[in-house]
Amino acid sequence: VNEFAVGGQGEELQRRLKKRAKGKNDTSWLVEWWNQIAYLTDRGPVVFYVSYFFGFKPLPLSLLQQPSTTGETGNPQCNAASAIVEQALNFKQMLQDGSLSPDVVGKSPQCMAVYPLLFNACRIPTKDSDVVATYSPAHSHFLAARRGHFFAVQTADGAGRRLSRHVIAQQLLRVVAEADRLGDSAAPVGALTSWGRDEWADARGRLLSKSKNAHAMDAVESACFVICLDHAGGPDVQSRARQYWHGDGRNRFFDKALQWIVLPDGAAGFLGEHAMADGGPALRINQYIIAAICSGPPAAPAGHVSSSGPAFPPRLLSFEVDHEL
């Protein structure tokens, strides 16, 4: 150890690291190596080996049982999901307008560079090393998943005003009704994201060779986040944890940075893609969402105007998948 540390190879390596650090004034000397070696060049599947999940404490019954705007019996799943959408969008708005306070450790503010890599972001499989694509926050839609089908759901009306939580809940009810009418997808594209990265890169390339698929994939990858409306739940903590972590592998898009899973009874959890962010930022987003939901209707962010519609209907994203895939 002494030979390495004093006058040996250790001193030379330390000198090189210090030189590298001086050339990285805007970030850490480690971040590029860490992201590449620990995550993006790993060719194994992300689910199980990289993805992480949280389970939420029970959401308020007053939310889950809230009747629809038309007076119908409340749908716990869509009520919970719409509340999560509302608060996730509030957090995104604070991030965009600069009103989000910095993370703090002790009394020291921390770097916030990771946060823009969470919303409207997606890991993209490429041979040898993946990349992470970020899209303009002007993409205001989120992705709703049900029975292996994906729907693009807009969060603003034609005038650009944010839709209210109640309208979002109605949109999600439409998603559930249409997906249940269609039944389980015969070709759930999301399942391909559980493959090894090189295999998924090949499959994605084949999918994108058809223009219809390219347009659908762009809507998936540019979405703010994903809301998974699972049609099955779990009777205990362990089964629910597995549902949040992976489910049946069909009703997920494992490359998306932010996914919320909501079960039929309104139980909910979160699934994160780990490549560009550790759990801290995702934990803060989820703590904000849960605190806001459980404390009752929060004040909307400055400049936010809620709209009761009319809303653009959810758009089913259709893919042409060949027999080999």
Average predicted confidence as pLDDT: 90
Residue stretches low in confidence (pLDDT < 50, at least 5 long) are 298-303
Oligomeric organization of the protein chains = single chain
Shape: globular
Write up what this structure looks like.
With 325 residues, the chain is an alpha/beta fold. 37% of the residues lie in helices and 14% in strands. The protein contains ten helices and 13 strands. The strands form four sheets. It has a seven-stranded mixed beta sheet, with helices on both faces. Strands 2-3 form a two-stranded antiparallel ribbon. It has a two-stranded antiparallel ribbon with strand order 4-5. The protein starts with a helix and ends in an 8-residue tail after the last strand. Residues 298-303 have low confidence and may be disordered.
What distinguishing features does this structure have?
seven-stranded mixed beta sheet, 325 residues, single chain, 10 helices, alpha/beta
What's this, in brief?
This protein has 325 residues and is an alpha/beta fold. The chain is built from ten helices and 13 strands.
SSE blueprint and pairings:
Layout: H1 2-5, H2 9-22, H3 31-40, E1 52-55, H4 61-64, H5 76-97, E2 104-105, E3 108-109, E4 121-124, E5 131-134, E6 142-146, E7 149-153, E8 162-163, H6 165-182, H7 197-208, H8 211-222, E9 226-229, H9 237-245, E10 258-262, E11 268-272, H10 279-294, E12 306-307, E13 315-317
Parallel strand pairs: 6-9, 8-12, 9-10
Antiparallel strand pairs: 1-11, 2-3, 4-5, 6-7, 7-13, 10-11
Helix pairs in contact: 5-6, 5-10
